[in-house]
Amino acid sequence: MSIGFIGAGNMASAIVRGIVESGYAAPGDILVSDPNPGALSALVAQTGVQGAAGNAEVVAASSTVVLAVKPQVLPSVFEEVAARMVAAGPLVVSIAAGTPIAKLERWLSPHVPIVRAMPNVNAQVRQAISAVAGNGAASRDQIDSVLAMFGSVGDAIELEERLFRAFMAIAGSSPAWTFLYIDALARGAVAAGMPKALALRVAAKAVAGSASLVDDGGAHPWELIDRVSSPAGTTIAGLSVLEERGLPSAITQAVRATVERDKEISAGSD
Questions:
Q1: Model confidence at 217: pLDDT above 80
Q2: Which structural domain, as residue segments, surrounds residue 198?
Q3: What's 174's domain CATH number?
Q4: Of 52, 112, 204, 228, which one is least surrounded by beta carbons within 10 A?
Q5: Shared domain check, 259 and 154
């Protein structure tokens, strides 16, 4: 197995580290290219993977090619290596946001196996949730191999591509909203006298543990809310304020706005 990465940015670096640390692939079987020599050198030094002279070398040497570049960079990448990809026939994995499989097929060919994957920022700490969808040319084994690859940086699920926009909103964008929530919690504690660094740690741990109760414990959020909310207690007092100020509605509207903006961006790039 040989895996090539076109791009050595933050997400690519997180995935490469996960692949190496999990044992999914050996460093010597991973080849990476990037126009930024500093980013490429840093990744090579950190992980022991191989640096490539350019994108063409990655395509020529790899059975799987991961396109880990921003959507606006894809046209120039395909201008350089699309013909080589079609001729060589590697499995092409794209993590470019807002770039559906149909568009990738127009650049390449419907006969090239293509898998679209969408990880999130938590891949940096191997706690990502990633969505994966393949085209008609991608075999079951190829899709499973991509699920395993992204499983090295967290959880990975196979998802119908029509649901990617909703997934992007609640998995890709929501970490930013969660960071905002954690900071707001900490600021409230600071106002009550707690040092900021300690408040941030406590808030982050509380959020992480609460998420685990839903994910690992299998309980419904409202069941858990009821467990923590004593009649006329402190928790229900705070919860009432959040509901009065419209927090649940604001979050739902944020998801809707994110989905609509993704539609606009995708339409503008066609």
A1: no
A2: 166-268
A3: 1.10.3730.10
A4: 228
A5: no
Residues 71 and 185 in one domain: no
Residues with Cβ within 8 Å of 183's Cβ and at least 6 positions away in sequence, in order, are: 200, 203
Q: Encode pLDDT of 22-42 as tens digits.
A: 999 999 999 999 999 999 999
| Residue-level pLDDT at 268 | 66
Mean pLDDT of 136-154: 97
Same domain? For 155 and 39 the reply is yes
User: Do 153 and 219 belong together in one domain?
Assistant: no
Residues 127 and 14 in one domain: yes
Average pLDDT for the chain: 94
User: What is the pLDDT at residue 199?
Assistant: 98
Same domain, 132 and 171: no
Residue 57 and residue 151 share a domain: yes
Give φ, ψ of 93 to 5 degrees.
-115, 125
Q: For residue 97, what pLDDT is reported?
A: 86
Structural domains in the chain (count): 2
Half-sphere exposure of 181 (CA within 13 A, CB side): 15
pLDDT > 70? residue 182 = yes
